Amino acid sequence: MPAGPRSKVMPSASVPGSSPRERSDLVAGVLDRKPSATARLITALENNREDGRAALRELYPLGGRAHIVGLTGAPGSGKSTLVASLARCLRKRGRTVAIIAVDPSSSLSGGAILGDRIRMQEHALDDGVFVRSMSTRGALGGLSRATVDAACVLDAAGFDYVIIETVGVGQAEIDIVRCAQTVVVVSVPGLGDDIQTLKAGLLEVADIHVVNKADRPDADKTLAELRMLLTLDGSSNSTGWRIPLISTSALAGSGIEELADDIDRHATWLRESGELARREEAAAIARVSAIARDLISTRLGSPAERGGFVSLVHEVVDRTLDPHTAAQRLIVSGSDLTRSTEERR
Amino acid sequence: MVDVVNRESEPIRVLVAKVGLDGHDRGVKVVARALRDAGMEVIYTGLHRTPEEVVATAIQEDVDVIGISLLSGAHMTLFPQIIELLKRHDAQDRHVLVGGGVIPEEDAAALKKMGVHEILGQDTPPATLVERVRELAIAQRIRA
After folding, report:
1. Residues A253, A334: one domain?
2. Residue A210 falls within a domain, yes or no?
3. Gap from A334 CA to chain B (nearest CA, Å)
4. Residue A119 sits in a domain of what CATH number?
5. Element (H, E) at A132
6. Which residues of chain A lie closer than 8 angstroms to B30, CB-CB?
7. A97 and A155 share a domain?
8. Which residues from chain A sit within 8 angstroms of residue B45, using beta carbons?
9. Pair (A313, A175) in one structural domain
10. On chain B, which terminus has fewer CB atoms closer than 10 Å, C or N?
11. Does A308 share its domain with A233?
12. May I ask the CATH class of domain B10-143?
């Protein structure tokens, strides 16, 4: 975070479509840094409610100042403890930190145990730290939307850093971390051999590699394997960022200052190299298309669309229409429906 | 797009916490698991929390229900503190407060008068507990 601590005073920039007086209590509360307002807005967005989307419309133009860090790694790799230590370090430097801790939901019941806060209790009474636990709510693709929306709220609320912590399995999780500006991938000793480091997936999205639990005896081997991986592709990285490899022990507190320094160094590099603009564009493309896909699938399930959908399906079954044309007609009729609904308002 | 506002179908969020000097967490883990299996999102904060930490966490997590497990006998001291803190943060109307563990009946009655919505003792079957939590959460959302 290269800029100085952010002032609590928000710019009175005019927000499209609303004067400050018309701002909802929720928006005003978020800008006043009221934890209850921030929390309620995140709930509304998590449930994809219109009041949440309306508030986000007002807040979105005020964001773009926090540094968004995605931190990911295998279950049990010590992510939550590491995030708590990192937050402690950043607080000592006078920065404010928001943490979104994502845990998986049960594929059977949809319920979830969100236990990341257990490791973060030291920050419970600090106004400069906001922690929110989120469940993946099934892998329906809505996870990245809700999580990134929550990050937008916390950004607009004025936190210097927003850290998104997820278990690094599955495409949805990788999508989330790719919306972050700096991706930290946490490895631990004892999870497979060096062939694992050659596989595609999580390791290749890292901007910073961390080997946590460095107090463990086999940590050197994991470090060596990752170093090998980095000599293969780290320096040949076309963007010119040399991926650092940091050894940390969240328990002993070692390596944390170095991690915080490297996150800031990466933030500076992103801006100076022009990579930030490129990433923001990629993230915006991913976000808008994901939301559009969500909208389409919601619309296909809506009763208003049901009739047209069913008749198209019948035509496909009767072979009077091919599936590609049917799908195209569906999307065209869907956009007509949206337009006419808007006009009627 | 027509927006269907149906807050009843949104997942119920529950904070379960052990407060004070009480290291017995087997019961609270069983409760957390039962709520999870009923489709709720359960935030567990671990042992030895203070009333201040519980209230701050409940606000940040925007939970429907705060479940406090107490086997230490300190319920008549700790619950009033939690209620007071919720009032101070203007959050008493936002969260349902439920107590569990070993709480004598006469104390349970007194706690309910103070503003604890329900006391579910250690002999409550999991299915009953889940149903009661769900009822209280839905009723709370309708009031809010």
Report:
1. no
2. yes
3. 11
4. 3.40.50.300
5. strand A129-135
6. none
7. yes
8. 117-118, 121
9. no
10. C
11. no
12. alpha beta
Cβ distance A134 to A147 under 8 Å? Answer: yes
Domain assignment present for A68: yes
pLDDT score for B23: 78
Q: What is A134-153 written as a DSSP string?
A: EE--SSSSHHHHHHHHHHHH
Residue A97 pairs with which residues in a beta bridge? A129, A161
Q: Tell me: the pLDDT tens digits for A192-244?
A: 665 666 555 677 788 999 999 988 888 888 888 888 877 776 544 567 888 89
Residues A309 and A215 in one domain: no
The reported pLDDT for the residue numbered A114 is 86
**Cβ contacts of B11 on chain A, cutoff 8 Å:** 110-111, 135, 137
Query: Per-residue pLDDT tens for B11-69?
Result: 999 999 988 877 788 888 999 999 999 999 999 988 888 999 999 999 999 999 999 99
Question: Where do the domains of chain B lie?
Answer: 10-143
Say yes or no for a CB contact (<8 Å) between A124 and B53: yes
pLDDT in tens, A4-58: 444 444 444 444 444 444 568 899 999 999 999 999 999 999 988 889 999 999 9
On whether both A142 and A219 belong to a single domain, the answer is yes
DSSP state at residue B102: S
- Same-domain pairing of A208 and A76: yes
pLDDT for the residue numbered B21: 79
Domain extent at residue A307: 302-344
- The owner of tokens 């050659």 is A198
Residue type at position B33: R
Distance CA B43, CA B68 (A): 12
Whether B36 and A133 lie within 8 Å, measured CB to CB: no
Which of A42, A47, A114 lies at the smallest CB-CB distance from B10?
A47
Residue A38 lies in a domain: no
Nearest by CB to residue B53, choosing from A36, A115, A121, is A121
Dihedral (CA of A145, A57, A64, A156) sign? negative
B38 interaction partners in chain A (CB closer than 8 Å)? 109, 111
Domain count for chain A, please give it. Answer: 2
Hunting for tokens 């800008």 — which residue is that?
A31
Question: Tens of pLDDT along A93-149?
Answer: 999 999 999 887 777 777 888 888 888 888 888 999 999 999 887 655 456 778 899
SS3 content of chain A, % helix, strand, coil (to 5): 55, 15, 30
Task: Name chain B contacts of A299, Cβ cutoff 8 Å.
Answer: 1
Q: Is A36 on the interface with B (CB under 8 A)?
A: yes
ipTM value: 0.88
